[in-house]
Every structure is written in structure tokens, then in C-alpha cells.
User: Fold Ion-translocating oxidoreductase complex subunit G from Acetitomaculum ruminis DSM 5522.
Amino acid sequence: MKEKNTIVKDAIILLIITVVAGSLLGAVYQITKEPIKQANIAATNKAYALVYADADTFEDVDVDYDDVNAKILSGGIDNGEVTEVKQAVDGSGTALGYVLSVNGLKGYGGSVGFTIGVTLEGEVTGIEILSCEETPGLGQRCKEEAFRNQYVGKAVDGFKVTKAGASADDEIDAISGATITSTCVTGGVNAALYYVKNLVQ
Assistant:
């Protein structure tokens, strides 16, 4: 009987610990949820300013992302998707182009998320990597300015990756040992270009 009471007592103690721990975790989540959200917004806004320095504000664009990404896929781009679109506007209220949050798909470690600026004429103004789970020392080098700047200042219908040395505006030198990552990022860039060139209303 004594052993049975001990088991019941231990079970009650364990239950109390579980309830208290769960309540504390819930409280911590509620406390940190809003600051994390605001930090993510601030990081994204900073990325917008970095990829489209000539813009003063970034205005919401009404986009059906399922429809947009279905059209991007039907346009032959199967390794990139658009997740957010903002219009880049200067101080006088003139629309300059767009900043888009995109995912390059089919990377070595998954997707690569980044923000890209594109003018109304389809010229890339900048790229800022936001999330990347690629291999350190290899795919992670897509964050380096030398790689990202290959796209900047060019207005093409789409880019392709080469390992033989870029010889045209639409060619991107692959990162040594990370062709998959290079192709992944390029897929996201091409999705953004397709949106601006073909799907802007």
C-alpha cells in the first residue's frame, strides 16, 4: 500500500511540474512573440532599403501569391517563388519599381530566402539574403557581395548559372563547389524578374 501511495504521489508531483512548466513556456512565448515579430519586420524593412536605396517608402501591393507562383511555374521557373511584393516609391510619390521577398528553391540545404529590388524596366537594384541553411564555406557564400553583385545593374529576362565563366549579362558565375546553391538563388531572382516583367498589373 505504501508503494502504491508513493507512485500516486510521484505522479501528482510530475503532473504539477508539467503544468507549471507548460504555463511558464506559454507565458514566455506571449512575452516574446511581439518583440520577435517587430524584429523580423525591422530586419525586412532594412533589407528593403538596402536593395532599393533610391526609394523613400515601400507600399503594399495586393497580390494573390498562389496565383502568381502558379503563373511563375507555368512560365518555366520551377525553383523560385514570390512571398511578398512592395512597390518602391520615391519622396515625390513616383513609383520606381518593386522590392520582392522570394525563395530560391531546391538548394542543397533547402530554400534560400532573400529580398530583391527590381526597377520598372526590370533591372536588379540589389539582393539581400535573409535566410540560408546552405553548407558553411560553400553555399553560405551566396551571402557574399561578390556573388550577389553579379545580378545587380542588369536587366535581362532571366539568369542562368555557368561554371565556365560568365561571358554575357544573363550569365552568373557559380560559387565554386556550390552550383546547386547558385542555381537556387538564381531561381528566386528569375521568379522576381518574371513577376515584374509579366505579372505586374
Q: What stands out?
A: The CA atoms of residues 40 and 46 lie 10 Å apart.
